[in-house]
Write a structure and sequence with these properties.
Elements: E1 2-6, H1 14-22, E2 25-28, E3 42-47, E4 50-55, H2 78-87, H3 93-104, H4 111-125, E5 131-134, H5 146-157, E6 161-165, H6 174-178, E7 183-189, H7 207-213, H8 216-223, E8 226-230
Parallel strand pairs: 1-2, 1-6, 2-5, 6-7
Antiparallel strand pairs: 3-4, 7-8
Helix pairs in contact: 2-3, 3-4, 3-7
């Protein structure tokens, strides 16, 4: 069985959903410390012809708190108005905007619960069948070493393969995984390009952008456009 474990991100880019789609079980890693200036509460869309970053404010945001202990601030409709301004003329706006609106008005503003709901909503729309779990609900003993915690989660799930985003190559020692009968692999997204409003393509935006310009069957093909790389020792 293949497993992946990632922090929850706000409307993440397509590589995040490639990772979800590549495994049997995806664990949302929400009982680790919040990281400022990451993708937990911000991302980017296409506005005009440029990359535009949006941010959801978090009450008392601090790296001293776990993600699951924090709450988003009161939301204004400015975000939805920005989405309308950016994408009202996109080919799949009428299909996608109701999903974004439903996610935005989710009643629980706990950061973890809000983001998990958004990930599940989008995964459902994209017809991803992967089981999604939450680390704070697994009630496993805490490990001091980061890789030890990941390994414990994988073993509790009965996983034989752990797949991580390509950016995590510097974090883990393959020997730790081998000792626990786990194969360690990293997902490298392939080149993904599609027609936006102009001929100048802006890559790696939020999944919102991908959904606004592509139908589900096209996105499903994109979800499989990646390579898996094994790691040997530290890089």
């Amino acid at each position: 069985m293949k497993a992946a474990i990632m922090q929850p991100y706000l409307f993440p880019y397509i590589g995040y959903f490639q990772l979800i789609n590549a495994v049997d079980v995806f664990v949302v890693y929400d009982d680790v410390n919040y990281i400022k200036k990451g993708y937990i509460n911000r991302n980017s869309i296409l506005l005009g012809e440029s990359k535009f970053q949006f941010t959801f404010s978090i009450i008392g945001a601090s790296q001293n708190y776990k993600i699951c202990e924090l709450n988003f601030d009161f939301f204004s409709d400015k975000f939805l108005k920005t989405i309308i301004l950016a994408y009202s003329k996109a080919p799949f706006f009428n299909d996608v905007f109701p999903i974004i609106k439903r996610i935005f008005y989710f009643k629980d503003k706990n950061v973890s619960k809000f983001l998990v709901n958004s990930i599940i909503e989008i995964a459902t729309y994209l017809q991803i069948q992967t089981k999604i779990m939450i680390s704070s609900e697994l009630q496993l003993a805490k490990e001091e070493k980061a890789s030890g915690r990941i390994i414990s989660i994988c073993k509790s799930l009965g996983a034989s393969n752990y797949i991580n985003a390509i950016g995590g190559k510097l974090l883990y020692d393959v020997a730790d995984f081998n000792r626990n009968d786990l194969t360690l692999e990293f997902l490298q997204p392939g080149e993904i390009q599609y027609e936006q409003f102009t001929n100048s393509f802006v890559p790696w935006l939020s999944i919102i952008d991908v959904m606004m310009f592509n139908d589900v069957s096209t996105i499903q093909k994109m979800l499989n456009k990646y390579t898996l790389n094994q790691k040997y020792g530290y890089y």
